[in-house]
Design a protein that fits this description.
Structural class: alpha/beta
Strand content: 5-15%
Number of helices: 22
Helix content: 40-55%
Mean pLDDT: 92
Radius of gyration: 26 Å
Largest sheet: 6 strands, parallel
Low-confidence stretches: 488-499
Oligomer: single chain
Number of strands: 10
Length: 499
């Protein structure tokens, strides 16, 4: 990179701004870097460089640029605000809060500074304070984005009616805003309004530039007899396990059903009655006439809260594999309880990673379950935390290759206790008793104010009463498990666990 003369700094700064306005972010980055060579103390060049880097997704470099800005101009509040937002996107919430608070101190009348701090607080599960800041920001600038954020925070707090009011305001402000529509979908689904909720859920395809896959004609529910329909997974393993229940319904309409799923699910879902073929993501697809994403099927079938297809099991473990696990498990009458204490880390998705931090408890968080007489705990956790420790007494997960293997093990257990991850869906789909630990801002699929699930008749839900506080939840589970373990025989225990 050539060094510019000091006299060129102003011209390079103007050039960078012009390039940025025309959408040429990479060229603008070059111009601002050259400007800083000529004028190293130019805070505006650092600030705009950070904006360019943020636009192209180079977040760490953007942080360095914003830090350069606030070092050279400590009173430049916008630099702190953008620094905070970038730190938040990387999941560095403590640092983000420090920067956001500085920004708001310097810009107390700026709505963007309030929403920035509110977003950091929301991601930190400090919902009350976040909602207050969003409401203050709306008094200054009633934007669709802020209404949406407020609605999401109110939903996390369980204030469904207020959340819906905020979402309606967002949509009234910007009717075509996909994020506003999708956020309303999650609140409607959380409230059990599946008709409107699954309709709004289709806005998910407009939230990103990628959109839906171009796979040809989309099946919308027309008579499919005699045609091949591809049903394809689109989100996580748990989502696939939950919504694959619709595959037999599609086959029942006369279609030949091909499913495309994550590789670790191929063997398991390929055995579902009505599934003609199961292929893994990344493999060449066989010929098909129509396609439909799995999570669009509830809308196609007009699913309402009272019409959820809840017949279980709709997944079945392989009998020979079940027998192999049965031979390895204790047959002394001890209650066999599977434990899963963490979800996937999602290193490439900060938003998902932050949710995982709230939904996971860690094995140490379950130590209070130790020492319950008549109970043996078996790990169902892949990539566990290291050496076997209390309360787990058996861990064979290194021998488990895919979910067909896991299903065979789970089918031999009396009970599964799991955080909100794919193992809970697997147990429910197999019709096994499952106790779910649900975070305070629980997923939409577990509804509000219920300890049961319309999706899984064998599930019982244990919810956090305060954000991030698992102790009371584990205490309730321990008490209920002690009662259950005192049953007369394993058959009675099974019935009690499913109650």
């Amino acid at each position: 990179m050539e060094t510019a003369a000091p006299a060129d700094a102003a011209a390079l700064f103007d050039l960078g701004n012009s390039l940025l306005e025309r959408g040429r972010a990479e060229a603008a980055i070059e111009a601002f870097r050259r400007c800083l060579l000529a004028a190293p103390d130019h805070p505006g060049a650092n600030y705009n460089l950070g904006n360019c880097l943020l636009r192209v997704g180079r977040l760490v470099e953007a942080i360095e640029a914003y830090l350069g800005c606030v070092r050279k101009a400590p009173e430049f509040g916008a630099g702190y605000v953008n620094l905070a937002d970038t730190l938040r996107r990387l999941g560095l919430l403590d640092q983000a809060r420090w920067a956001a608070e500085h920004g708001l101190t310097l810009l107390p009348e700026m709505a963007e500074a309030e929403t920035c701090l509110a977003s950091v607080l929301h991601d930190s599960a400090q919902y009350e304070r976040a909602a207050e800041l969003y409401q203050r920001a709306l008094e200054r600038a009633p934007t669709a984005g802020t209404f949406t954020s407020l609605g999401n925070t109110l939903r996390a707090m369980g204030r469904v009616d207020q959340a819906l009011e905020a979402h309606e305001s967002a949509i009234a402000t910007a009717p075509g805003d996909a994020e506003a529509r999708f956020s309303r979908a999650l609140t409607l689904l959380s409230a059990g309004d599946y008709g409107r909720g699954f309709a709004d859920y289709e806005w998910r395809w407009l939230r990103s530039e990628g959109g839906a896959r171009a796979l040809g004609r989309w099946w919308k529910g027309e008579a499919p007899a005699g045609r091949t329909i591809l049903l394809h997974a689109e989100q996580g393993l748990g989502d696939t396990l939950q919504f694959i229940r619709y595959a037999p319904l599609v086959a029942g309409l006369g279609a030949r059903v091909v499913v495309e799923v994550q590789p670790e699910l191929v063997r398991l879902v390929g055995a579902i009655p009505g599934v003609a073929e199961a292929v893994p993501h990344g493999q060449t697809l066989p010929p098909f006439d129509l396609h439909c994403p799995l999570m669009s099927l509830p809308r196609v079938f007009g699913t309402q809260l009272g019409t959820v297809p809840d017949r279980v099991p709709y997944l079945v473990a392989d009998p020979e594999m079940m027998a192999a696990w049965r031979a390895r498990l204790s047959q002394d009458g001890t209650m066999r309880v599977g434990l899963c204490w963490a979800g996937a880390a999602h290193a490439d998705d900060v938003g998902a990673r932050l949710i995982d931090q709230r939904r996971s408890i860690g094995l140490a968080g379950l130590r209070e379950l130790s020492g319950i007489e008549g109970v043996r705990f078996i790990s169902l956790q892949k990539a566990s935390e290291g050496e076997l420790s209390s309360p787990v007494t058996a861990d064979w997960m290194e021998e488990v290759g895919d979910f067909a293997d896991t299903a065979a093990l789970v089918a031999n257990l009396d009970l599964v206790i799991s955080v909100d991850t794919a193992v809970a869906h697997l147990a429910g789909a197999l019709g096994r008793p499952v106790w779910l630990l649900s975070r305070y801002d629980g997923c939409w699929r577990w509804l509000y104010g219920r300890d049961d699930s319309p999706w899984y008749p064998s599930m019982r839900i244990y919810r956090q009463e305060q954000p991030l506080d698992w102790n009371p939840v584990v205490g309730r589970i321990r008490r209920d498990l002690m009662v259950l373990a005192g049953s007369a025989a394993p058959a009675d225990r099974l019935r009690g666990a499913a109650a």
